Amino acid sequence: MTQKSSNILLIYTGGTIGMIKDPDSGALRAFDFNNLLLRIPELKLLECDIETLSFEEPIDSSNMNPDCWVEIAEVIELNYHKFDGFVILHGSDTMSYSASALSFMLENLGKPVIFTGSQLPIGDLRTDAKENLITSIQLAALKKNDAPVIKEVGLYFEYKLYRGNRTTKINAEHFEAFASLNYPELAESGVHLKVNKKQLFKPVTHDGLIVHKTLETNIALVKLFPGITAAVLTSIFNTKGLKGVILETYGSGNCSTEKWFLRLLKNAIEKDIAIINVTQCSGGSVAMGQYETSEKLTKIGLISGKDITTEAALCKLMYLLPKQLDKVAFKTAFQNDLRGEMS
Q1: I need a labelling partner for 217 at 20 to 30 A (CA). Which of 24, 144, 245, 254 fits?
Q2: Which are the contacts of 105, defined by CB distance < 8 A and separation ≥ 6?
Q3: How many CA atoms are closer than 13 Å to the CA of 328, on its beta-carbon side?
Q4: Is 145 left (phi over 0), alpha (psi -120 to 50) or beta?
């Protein structure tokens, strides 16, 4: 039996990949993605049908926000049964945040949603855009027994497909802009396209796609540093309407044991502000209680982020807070792996 070709929806949100240089000013501007085939004629060689959709006003990824995430999610929801896979073209600066957010928003996802972009515009002679785009479409189109091989939100960049909510942008200049230090790549593109099937997320898909569109943005990200003052932290924790804080601590979840510091955290938790302990390190995990400096955090009620990235932690917090869970249920939900975001 001949396997059906895949239908892929290419969604352009903005970013360098879709830019061309203005011949007069030299500034980058978005080009019409309906002319994509003229720019990358190789797409005609792919064994899949591609349709394109562009944001009415493409945005720089620095301006990405939860409203845009909802817009992307709604496009996928509206077209979910029409297409076999989705490729989202996005600026690289906030791509890990968006990939993480969509992973939580798209519950029971049974199809590939792959983010990609580039460091150089698609019209540049040395661009990385063509390979990133062509291989992302190939990965989104992969099927076995007429079912998608990949059933999660991924991020493809420079010959590697990663789980989206495990990535961090690590370089602003190199083509190898992203890393997934706590989880292996899902696929690698070389002479052959090698998929690491054991690493793929295996969702519960029989219930059908559920799209979560309510996100809580009254949260803060606090990175500790030697010399951080009580005045600064107090002003953050006293922010009106604050619901949660991602606290980037040292090493495996360590921080100051100064009485004022612990008292400030304890008071915030008593005011129902959720505090998540994540490590400042690019790789590794929080292990609260391993050292005396983190043991006290456990006692006052901080939630361990384990080996989650800061990007995924922020998005998971945004996703879980509107669920109106009690403290115990919220802590359990955050510390449980929902979409492959933590070990």
Answers
A1: 254
A2: 69, 70, 73, 211, 212, 213, 215, 319
A3: 0
A4: left
- Quote the pLDDT of residue 33: 63
* Catalytic sites, residue numbers: 16
| C-alpha separations of 338 from 20, 312, 343 in Å | 39, 11, 10
In the chain, which residues have pLDDT < 70? 1-4, 20-22, 26, 28-37, 123, 205, 293
Range list of H helices, the chain: 36-39, 66-79, 95-105, 129-141, 230-237, 259-270, 292-300, 310-320, 327-335
Give per-residue burial for 107-116: e unless 16+ CB within 10 Å, then b.
bebbbbbbbb
> Which residues fall within 8 angstroms of residue 261, CB to CB, at 6 or more apart?
230, 233, 255
Distance between terminal CA atoms of the chain? Answer: 39
What per-residue confidence (pLDDT) applies to 255? 92
DSSP calls for 71-91: HHHHHHHHHTTT-SEEEEE--
Residue 146 CB-density burial (10 A; 0-12 exposed, 13-18 middle, 19+ buried):
exposed
Task: Give the residue carrying structure tokens 């939630």.
Answer: 303
Interacting residues of 281 by C-beta distance below 8 A, sequence separation 6+: 251
Q: Smallest Cα–Cα separation from 116: which of 134, 102, 141?
A: 134
pLDDT at position 1: 41
Q: Do the Cβ atoms of 83 and 7 come closer than 8 Å?
A: yes
Collapsed DSSP state (helix, strand, coil) of residue 30: strand
The first and second tokens of residue 184, run together, are 């292996």
Tokens of 290: 């391993």
Angle ∠(107,312,318) on CA atoms, nearest 5:
70
Judging by DSSP bridges, how do beta strands 19-21 and 178-179 pair with one another?
unpaired
The answer to whether the CB of 99 falls within 8 A of the CB of 109 is: no
Question: Which tens digit of pLDDT belongs to each residue from 274-312?
Answer: 999 999 998 999 998 777 767 789 889 999 999 999 999
Task: For 141, list phi and psi in degrees, rounded to 5.
Answer: -90, -10
